[in-house]
Amino acid sequence: MSQTLLSVRGLRSGYGAVEVLRGVDLDVGAGEIVALLGSNGAGKSTFNQTVSALLPARAGSVRFDGRDITRAHYRDVVAAGLIHVPEGRRIFPNLSVLENLELGSFTRARANRAANLERVFGIFPRLKERVTQLAGTMSGGEQQMLAIGRGLMGEPRLLILDEPSLGLSPLLVEELFGLVGRLHAQGLAILLVEQNVAQSLEIAQRAYVMENGAIQFSGTAAELLATDRLRQAYLGV
């Protein structure tokens, strides 16, 4: 693995009396694409929220580029370049496409806003066509483009994509995974958090499989595809 960018050790977190994460270890290297896989309810989104400082850790540590961010404010996490595109897109429906994108550079990369807008429009020409449209009137696929574009506006060093293919048509899912591959090819480190095991393993260099808030398997994509238990549970073969 390349130089470690994100290092998570023994992470525990949850809601009220319910502990969801039970001692999770995970690493993402600089420029690497890593998949965090698991079924609905496995704890993946709780992991993302805890790493992003939207949910407090109960135990363990989160380090980003060597810095301990376990107890950091979420704005400081974003300012460091760890940017989370949440499940469900979470765009602002009553704001325009442009306004949503500009909010992506509120904390980080504000000085480069114009250049980053052009970059996002180059990746997503459809967003440029709809720049004045209210985000809530767009299709699900367009809203997902907007959510990812908003994340890119902050010049992420690591982009966490939480269930980006959820609710998309098969054709749009293919386009989405192609986009993730292209962003990675440009040198962006990505943590791809997905239920779509087969397509995630096609583009990820390494992967972790989470069940009941704990990592059950980890390794290269090829190693996981050769694991009988994973193939039977997630691929039906």
UniProtKB/TrEMBL annotation:
BP-aspect Gene Ontology terms:
L-amino acid transport
A GO molecular function assigned to this protein is: ATP binding
Q: Does the keyword tRNA-binding apply?
A: no
Which keywords, in A-to-Z order, does the entry hold? Amino-acid transport, ATP-binding, Cell membrane, Membrane, Nucleotide-binding, Transport
> From what superkingdom does this record's organism come?
Bacteria
Domain called ABC transporter: residue spans: 6-237
The answer to keyword Repeat applying to this record is no
The family annotation for this protein states: Belongs to the ABC transporter superfamily.
- State the protein's name: ABC transporter ATP-binding protein
Name its species.
Answer: Ramlibacter montanisoli
